[in-house]
């Protein structure tokens, strides 16, 4: 950590690029081998401008034992870069977290020209700070940007810039192995014209903030509302991209779930009621299949309905590495789940996502579309022993907090 | 007009509520029969605060013959009101159009907590300014707000406030019977927390701006890309609400259409390839059905796939009033259209929406999913004589510009 710190201090001291020097002329200087005047296809870490928060702008850090409600607290600094279709990207900059000045006609406010990522940095038991698989999140963000008709950028440059803002706010990275620093890269269309079409201007920015566990109930099994009258994603849509538009329609449905004492929604698709996702997470089922094999199942990406989650991928990779049970990406329907429950073949069901790693399912409140009756299905996830979900959780957090290593999943900053 | 103007001047002169007097205390005073301290369930026209633009802030109006590109030009003033879950709505205010100051973690920027309306005011041939069926738009906006988990408000209060901002910017309402003042009511979730859930704070605002005809090609037939690999809306989704999230996924598909020399997308749904909408408009087909009856068809609202357009409703009402041909709301599939074209029974196909009233379809570029070949279907809309689409257009604009009246569709401001 100390070497990182000193390298950061050098950056602050030696960088000739203070914010005040930024100008249109600067942006068009010949560098990075680009001819003068052609639009910049990415922002560059080497251009990073830093405006440090003044002591008055710095916020008090939360107490060590504070309950960190997800997404309520932000670190002192943010990263940002602007884009327009004539000039391409500006230099990236780190500034204190400040309100954005957005034209009321900006595309992001009308047509949901927006996308985001969710990722985390962890303070390891060796006090080093590491990001978990940031290359996966940036690759997904680039794919999403293309689908959302928002501008592309270089993933590695973005990761380096993010590492710098985390380094600057390193005191915001919790000294705890149940908490972490949530990282929220965001890309929005900002040009103030009301035609439904390409954004001609955009802003990339990254917020960070300390978070504890996502669910207020902690590591407790959740109850899910499963009602095929509500649909999250569909073929020909954008369910496999992390666009903001996938979330707005779920909020009201989430409230309907809460009214029925459920914490999350189990999203179903199609006449056969395939399970697709749970809340904002991917879904996993561990069972004994009809052939008598122990099998871990998650819905496949091929349908276009499923967000390619980084935790999802990580659990699949770990399970394949262990090679102790069958690992399958395929559709699984509510009738199959009901049958397995009745035959006591269903061991565990859990969500998987960045915010919580895994989240056990304890109950499904199923709206039976044939009878219009809500049925309560008990899911024995917490009773299964040895517990696969728990093993995934412990393996992943051991990797995230530096107790062990696995491939190149952790990137030290 | 002159009486409206003088009443507006009185408002400016006599209103004791200048912006500088707005404060939390003011907002909690007992009025409108509400007990002190309880949240305001709407904003009230009688509370409207007006901050007039300074001469320096006023923009030059476009020349009479200027080409008005849709959504590129805004009038001088905007209307806004803020909401939070503790206090409810603030007093509404009219201010110069200014950038919004939005926290980078605001829900609107991440989860598309946003919705809007599109409506218009017209300067009649008697120089009076009228809105077209604003009650329909406000009723839809309230329904959409509920689905988007954003706050409700009173429709009539909103219309009165909008009338005031239009009156203040009356010189922005074009003196032309091909142009009008576009009105964009917007509602966004503004609280800066990253949990996917209810917005605890929101902003309602209204922009206006002069517009000519929507399509750059003017009243020319458009070519449509019809490709069932892209889907706009689906059962269990929010296609029948004017949420921002319905638009972001269409932008990239629109670009694919342009690549194939089409101006818009004809949105198909399901295995039978039902036609649902065209671009951002409702779709109408006028044909001779298999029973030999002349029939106007548009897809029904019951599926939840179709936005309940105000122009859609207006055309249906007019056609029923005329009572000269059959008027049907039902699903219509691509195979049915193909058959009718072959049998020369399809007379006209056109979009219907606020921006353009009607928009003739001249061609469909159909991606045949069985053969993976793009087929060009010529649609004889412009050749049909007498032309139903044209009759709709002329009837509607005669109502909008005050040449004739129909029910209570026009509301003088």
Automatic annotation (TrEMBL), chains A, B:
Reactions performed catalytically: L-isoleucine + 2-oxoglutarate = (S)-3-methyl-2-oxopentanoate + L-glutamate; L-leucine + 2-oxoglutarate = 4-methyl-2-oxopentanoate + L-glutamate; L-valine + 2-oxoglutarate = 3-methyl-2-oxobutanoate + L-glutamate
Disordered: annotated segments: 23-42
InterPro entries, per the entry: Aminotrans_IV, Aminotrans_IV_CS, Aminotransferase-like, B_amino_transII, BCAT-like_C, BCAT-like_N, BCAT_family
Cofactor annotation: pyridoxal 5'-phosphate
Gene3D superfamilies: 3.30.470.10, D-amino Acid Aminotransferase, subunit A, domain 2
Gene Ontology MF: a single term: L-leucine-2-oxoglutarate transaminase activity
Entry's EC annotation: 2.6.1.42
Protein name: Branched-chain-amino-acid aminotransferase
Residues that bear N6-(pyridoxal phosphate)lysine: 242
GO biological process, one term: L-leucine biosynthetic process
SUPFAM superfamilies: D-aminoacid aminotransferase-like PLP-dependent enzymes
NCBIfam families given in the database record: ilvE_II, PRK13357.1
Similarity comment: family membership: Belongs to the class-IV pyridoxal-phosphate-dependent aminotransferase family.
Gene source species: Diploscapter pachys
Keywords assigned: Amino-acid biosynthesis, Aminotransferase, Branched-chain amino acid biosynthesis, Pyridoxal phosphate, Transferase
Gene Ontology CC entries for this record: mitochondrion
Enzymatic class: transferase
A Pfam family the protein falls into: Aminotran_4
Statement: the UniProt record of this protein carries the keyword Transmembrane: no
PROSITE patterns reported in the protein's UniProt record: AA_TRANSFER_CLASS_4
